[in-house]
Amino acid sequence: MDDKVKEIQNNFASDIKNVKKLQDIVDIKAKYIGKNGCITELTKNMRDYSVEERKEIGKIANELKNKITESISNEENRINKELIDEKLKNEAIDVSLPGLEIPCGAPNILEKTIEEFETVFMSLGYDVVDGPEVEEDHYNFELLNLPKGHPARDAQDTFYLEGEDLLLRSQTSPVQARVMLQNKGEKPIRMICPGKTYRRDDDDATHSHQFTQIEGLLVDHDISLSDLKGTFDIIAKKLFGEDTKTRFRPSYYPFTEPSVEMDISCFNCKGKGCNICKNTGWITISGAGMVNPNVLKMCGYDPEKWNGFAFGFGAERCAMLKYDINDIRTFYNTDLREIKVFDRKDGE
Ligand code: DAH
Fold first, then answer.
1. Which of 27, 156, 286, 347 has its CA 20 to 30 A from that of 148?
2. Phi, psi (rounded to 5 degrees) for 312
């Protein structure tokens, strides 16, 4: 028995010295402490021994097994550590290498312009409201003083969904009617509604079948055109620079009386005349006017007691002017380079 133990010890001592890789560990484990290993072999013919002898053999075998297991596990740890060290050495980070550029998003320039409008109007106490893009003829036209057959409907031909009554709104003005009806002729109103609008236009540099308007409505008592002028003045200065001048030009909209076009002085040439303002020194950015009493009445407000003004900015037009964009389709294609360029411009 002693001889056998000695032999195992000697063999193990020389085998463990030759261990170099993890596979050697697997092999040595199998050879000595595995199911069919030397130690199991040692305790194989226990039946031939007395109880006392069995105890003794069991003890010796156990001690041997523990020692061998411990040595193997030390060796295994050593190899694993070497492997990790090796890996760390190979994966060392070269801090002098330039970093990878992480692509970074930028807000869409149209959204940004709309948000600027919202911020200024909210500071003037306006609510920002939403309205449906699929609209009824009743709201899009009738309640805005555009009965069927009205010639001003021609300029707002749009897409119809079912029959003649359901359409993609051609303007955000129907939201005026909706908000007035919601307030039941009882409360003053200050709201803007930025949103998508649709027209049956052929797309080109200045036309798009889908575009964005920012509608506005103020209803209260004793409102005059000068309130509209003052409001427009603030908006123009905040959005296009403090030295911006404003002017009204007479116009016509069925839902306002009187109606105006609201112009800003050209921020490019400061009024001298250039290609942006077509040499007039002025740029139109919104239609507006005093809410037509017929509209107030149809939407539940008594025109004897209430009046107000309304306006409709072209969001793309404002963004195009602000960011010097010459094609409206720029907002709707998916070329990220454009957003990047405009973002940079804005950051200057
Ligand atoms: N909805 C008009 C358009 O699409 C713009 C507009 C003009 C809106 C005057 C208004 C307004 O609220 O008062 O051309």
1. 286
2. -145, 105
What are 234-276's pLDDT values in tens digits?
A: 999 999 999 999 999 999 999 999 999 999 999 888 888 888 8
Q: Whose CA is nearest to atom 7 of ligand 1?
A: 287
Q: How far apart are the first and last CA of the chain?
A: 90
CA 312 to ligand 1 center in whole angstroms: 4
Task: Decide: 195 and 131 in contact? Cβ < 8 Å.
Answer: yes
Which residue's C-alpha comes closest to atom 5 of ligand 1? 312
Q: In what order do the strands lie in the sheet with 134-136?
A: 134-136, 166-168, 160-162
Report which listed range, 87-96, 115-124, 334-343, is most confident.
Answer: 115-124
Q: From the centroid of its chain, how far is CA 139?
A: 31
Name, in order, each residue with C-beta under 8 angstroms of 318's C-beta and a sequence gap of 6 or more.
113, 117, 239, 285
pTM over 0.85: no
What is the spatial distance between Cα 139 and Cα 141, in angstroms, rounded to a whole number? 6
Q: What is the pLDDT of residue 347?
A: 44
Q: Please give the Cα distance from 245 to 208 (Å, whole number).
A: 29
What's the chain's Rg over C-alpha atoms? 42
CA of 218 to the centre of ligand 1 (A): 14
Q: In 145-188, at which residue ranges do the beta strands (DSSP E only) sit? A: 160-162, 166-168
**Triad 336, 172, 202: Cα angle to 5°:** 55
